[in-house]
From TrEMBL:
It comes from Nocardioides acrostichi. Pfam families: YajC (PF02699). The lineage of its organism: Bacteria, Bacillati, Actinomycetota, Actinomycetes, Propionibacteriales. The keyword Cytoplasm does not apply. The keyword Iron-sulfur does not apply. Belongs to the YajC family. It is found in: Cell membrane. It is a single-pass membrane protein. GO terms for biological process: protein transport. GO terms for cellular component: plasma membrane. Keywords: Cell membrane, Membrane, Protein transport, Translocation, Transmembrane, Transmembrane helix, Transport. This is Preprotein translocase subunit YajC. Residues 86-112 are annotated as: Disordered. Its main location: membrane.
Amino acid sequence: MLPLLVIAVIFWLLIVRPQTRRNRELMTMQRSLGVGDEVMLTSGVYGILRALDDPDDPDDTAVSVEIADGVVIRVARAAVGQKVAPLAGTEDEQATDLTLDKNPDPTSDEEN
């Protein structure tokens, strides 16, 4: 009897407890969603939240996600798998990386 109890406790500690904690964190994240958040759906689709049904209503289960310019889909709130952290300065960094000619002298024989 004691070995079965030990196995049950180990199962609870290794499987049930961590899964319960992950579910709680996921539900907290889904409740904290706001318009304009970039999210990844559980299907792997990235998008920006454009509309939320009433976030205070526990029966509210839908959000609207823009997945391309002008393409908005309505999905279950539970389909939002995670918030995506915005990349800091992506447009500015890309603009500086795209400098075409660092040598303003056109008579130079250097080839890039």
